[in-house]
From TrEMBL:
Keyword hit for NAD: yes
Record protein name field: Enoyl-[acyl-carrier-protein] reductase [NADH]
GO terms of biological process kind: fatty acid biosynthetic process
Top-level enzyme category: oxidoreductase
Keywords, comma-separated and alphabetical: Fatty acid biosynthesis, Fatty acid metabolism, Lipid biosynthesis, Lipid metabolism, NAD, Oxidoreductase
Protein source organism: Undibacterium oligocarboniphilum
Amino acid sequence: MKPESLFSLAGKRGVIIGLANAHSIAYGCAVVAHALGAQMVLSCLNDKALQFVAPLAEQLQSPLLVCDVEKEGELERLIQFAADRMGKIDFLIHSVAWAPLTDLHGRVLDSSAQGFLQAMNISCHSFARAARLCEPHLAPGASLMTMSYLGADEAVAHYGLMGPVKAALESLVRYLAVEMGPAGTRVHAISPGPVPTRAASGLQEFDALMEKAKTNAPLKRLVTLPEIGQLAAFLISDAASGMTGQTLYVDGGYHIVN
Ligand code: NAD
């Protein structure tokens, strides 16, 4: 399906955090949003990532900033830049996760406090911070979203530490939805099925996880980046104006049969 045939996001202005390369979910979302007419500011982690992401941002005619959410002032700078450039912010896509490999690969039981907190700060609390920073600049009916995974809800083998982190993220979405709803802001989590990305390559046995998803999902296949982007575009659009606080799966139906 051509994204252009969906609906229009003309006039929508947003920030997308978390592009690492052309396989990133954030990039999939950016491609669809761009095709539907949205204006965006994009971010990647650091100068090293710039070489991979700069050509993608150029292709999408969008400014690209470096933003490490752990570094003092970088998230602030990104959101302020977006607000200054675009006037108002209609959407935020937070597509960021990280955990130290030693903690990720071990038992959750053995995880270090430092690793757990760092994973929580980067992958969960940074969404609250980004939402708070966007708040003064949000347009009426703005839509904020983050990326979760089924491991939030079930103990998925090898998902380890990220399970409790994503569970906290989905809960955070509900609290932000309640707190920001009176101003008309909508907040969601998107929960994609497995897609081969750099973050996913940090998980042990990820190929087996993809194979299981492919075999068992009602649609008998993995989802694609454009399909994840299409859900994000729908949530940005006025067509989703009555929805907030949800975790929406885009996983070929895997979560209903697993
Ligand atoms: P990815 O590696 O392309 O994206 C992860 C991004 O997080 C990268 O751009 C990385 O630079 C960024 N990041 C890590 N630490 C950061 C920090 N300190 N500051 C700013 N950015 C930081 O992988 P992806 O799979 O596209 O991951 C995007 C989101 O989707 C993550 O939240 C991930 O958990 C989620 N997700 C992925 C899958 C999958 O199968 N790939 C499934 C469900 C959910």
